[in-house]
Amino acid sequence: MTRPRELRFNAFNMTAPSHNWAGLWSHPRDASIDYNTLDYWVDYAKTAERGLLDGIFLADVFGVYDVFGGTADAAARHAVQLPNADPTLLVSAMALVTRHLGFGITSNLTFEHPYQLARTFSTLDHLTKGRIGWNIVTGYLDSGARGMGLPAGRAHDDRYDAAEDFLTAAYKLWEGSWEDDAVRRDRGSRIFTDPAKLHRVLHEGPYFRVDGIHLAEPSPQRTPLLYQAGTSKRGRAFAAQHAEAIFLNGQTRPILARAVREIREAAKTHGRDPYDIRLFAGATVIVAPTRSEANDLLEDYARHVDQTGQLALLSGWTGIDFSTYRPDQPIEYVESNAIQSMVENFTVRSDRPVNVGDLAGLSRAGARSPFVVGSPQDVADELIAWADETDVDGFNLFRLVAPESLNAFVDLVVPELQSRGVYKTAYRDGTLREKLFPGRGPRLHATHPGARYRRSADNLRSDAAE
């Protein structure tokens, strides 16, 4: 690690009974079966803020996992991210019971339009007082495309070309349609908005067209904090240009360190400081007061992970039908429209063959990222070592048994990290962007490509709006 920094954490969850480890909803102490109730999410948010976590990162998937065996039967039977609910609708309730916690919301731009999505995230940014982030995804499930009336999804690299066009239109709306002082709220003159300071966005792109004024007035951040999770070659190029925070995986420290290094180097090619991007690695953390108790807890949790459901999940992620593999059969690299970086990590980037059976259970071998089990001291040692050796800024904590696992992290690990001086003891004031980048202000940094669409006295872009 080239510069000291505090570790940052997001609680990683999904509005579904199962998330990254299939079957844990069946654990008798797990509350995820109530994923579709506000009480579940309100309590979850309160716990995350009590632990001073930077945010709740909500995953989403548009479609069903039907690669395994060619049907969605296994996904339905074992609740493999099915059913799932719209994560954007939960934010207002969680924001109401918290003051500082950020919210990273996954939204698939392939089935959205910039004009519509821009309003949604501006609204959320207003309602959270600037605590909203958008995890930009392009979608990889053909089942989702078919559900939307299309024969199949776009090819992998084409999805990122469309994302570039989408973001250009969105930046124009968020940054250029309303001047900073357009809204007057002047009761005396009965003028709410000065129409001279509103600007119609004209965007004629290869994938998206916009002709209109952004429907929402400028929010605290204007553009939400931008998350991204693409670490394929094309995904890295996109993320290095646009993302302010990136979620990435790697089951060994060398694999993760290489991904971090490639992203930071790519950021420089786009004129950005490599540390203008916060990098979060996924992490499975099982902690208890003693190492022995943590190992007992691992065995307890592992009994409830469903192997068929786990392989159905991984088949959807990788585009490989693991129902046709033997448990002892090593995974081979296959190019697909799914998550290419995951296949690369299991094959060409791995220092040993990864067998299908390795991926089916709750274990270090089956993890796609850091897998940490032990006492608070053990966990702190491991997380600090991963950060030091890979240069990540923090971790997205995978959901295990909820809320038990998050409570354990907050009650046991957070104090240990604080005692070592690597974790905050209080929240900073300001928006989510200001908390992640102290001293920067609530808006996109000047080197970010979206900043050039700002409408100001010295930076007018006639091609952004008229």
Any key phrases for this structure?
466 residues; 8-stranded parallel barrel; two-stranded antiparallel sheet; 14% strand; oxidoreductase activity, acting on paired donors, with incorporation or reduction of molecular oxygen; monooxygenase; Luciferase-like_dom; monooxygenase activity
Write the layout of secondary structure elements.
Blueprint: E1 8-14, H1 38-50, E2 55-59, H2 73-77, H3 91-96, E3 102-108, H4 114-127, E4 132-137, H5 142-147, H6 156-176, E5 183-186, E6 191-193, E7 201-204, E8 209-212, E9 225-228, H7 233-242, E10 245-248, H8 253-269, E11 278-287, H9 291-302, H10 307-318, H11 340-346, E12 371-374, H12 376-390, E13 394-398, H13 404-419, H14 432-436
Parallel strand pairs: 1-2, 1-13, 2-3, 3-4, 4-9, 9-10, 10-11, 11-12, 11-13
Antiparallel strand pairs: 5-6, 7-8
Helix pairs in contact: 4-6, 7-8, 12-13
Describe this structure in words.
The chain has helices spanning 38-50, 73-77, 91-96, 114-127, 142-147, 156-176, 233-242, 253-269, 291-302, 307-318, 340-346, 376-390, 404-419, 432-436, and strands at residues 8-14, 55-59, 102-108, 132-137, 183-186, 191-193, 201-204, 209-212, 225-228, 245-248, 278-287, 371-374, 394-398. The relative contact order is 0.16. Mean pLDDT is 91; it is low at 457-466. By secondary structure, the protein is α/β, with parallel strands linked by helices. The N and C termini lie far apart (46 Å). It is built from 14 helices and 13 strands. The longest helix is centred in the middle third of the chain and has 21 residues, at 156-176. The protein has an eight-stranded parallel beta barrel with strand order 1-2-3-4-9-10-11-13, surrounded by six helices. Belongs to the NtaA/SnaA/DszA monooxygenase family. Residues 27-388 form the Luciferase-like domain.
